[in-house]
From TrEMBL:
PANTHER family: MARR-FAMILY TRANSCRIPTIONAL REGULATOR, TRANSCRIPTIONAL REGULATOR, MARR FAMILY
Organism (species): Alicyclobacillus acidocaldarius subsp. acidocaldarius (strain ATCC 27009 / DSM 446 / BCRC 14685 / JCM 5260 / KCTC 1825 / NBRC 15652 / NCIMB 11725 / NRRL B-14509 / 104-IA) (Bacillus acidocaldarius)
Entry's transmembrane regions: none
Any one biological process term the GO annotation gives: response to stress
Protein name as catalogued: Transcriptional regulator, MarR family
Keywords tagged on the record: DNA-binding, Transcription, Transcription regulation
Length: 152
């Protein structure tokens, strides 16, 4: 690997670490709503987008083991954000769905986050935002593919 590429990888590593810290700090200090945590947000989002799912389906989606996803689901059920009911075809399976209260919690968090991102990149051109979004999606997909490969 030549020096120019090594330098860009080193710079990327540094900027990603700074990005992660600053984004979390911005979210913590900027919140207008009581936000739900990241795992709850993603679980509720999946149920909103895909409808009823089992814990196993959620675990597979997030590349987690069933015990981890079960621990993350429990407080959401207790908060009234997720409903559980037995699967009609397989009584051993529980079907999970988002409740109206879950939709409200999800939407309040989404609105808060969107407002933050509008503040952070609102002065970028549409082309700049779309370029960043495309690259971010590509990076997220590469990370997911790597995680999947490691699990097999």
């Amino acid at each position: 690997m030549d020096q120019a590429n090594m330098d860009s990888f080193e710079a990327l590593e540094r900027e990603m670490a700074i990005f992660a810290r600053r984004l979390e700090g911005a979210r913590q200090s900027w919140r207008k709503h009581r936000e739900i945590d990241r795992s709850a947000y993603l679980i509720l989002l999946a149920l909103r987008e895909e409808g009823e799912l089992t814990a196993g389906q959620l675990a597979a989606r997030f590349l987690l083991d069933i015990s981890t996803i079960s621990r993350q689901i429990t407080p959401l059920v207790e908060a009234g954000w997720i409903a559980k009911e037995r699967d009609e075809d397989d009584k051993r399976q529980l079907r999970l769905s988002i409740t109206e209260a879950g939709v409200e919690a999800l939407e309040a968090t989404r609105a808060s986050r969107i407002e933050l991102y509008r503040e952070l990149v609102g002065d970028w051109t549409e082309e700049e935002r779309r370029t960043f979004l495309g690259l971010l999606r590509r990076l997220n997909e590469r990370i997911r593919a790597r995680q999947q490969a490691e699990r097999t």
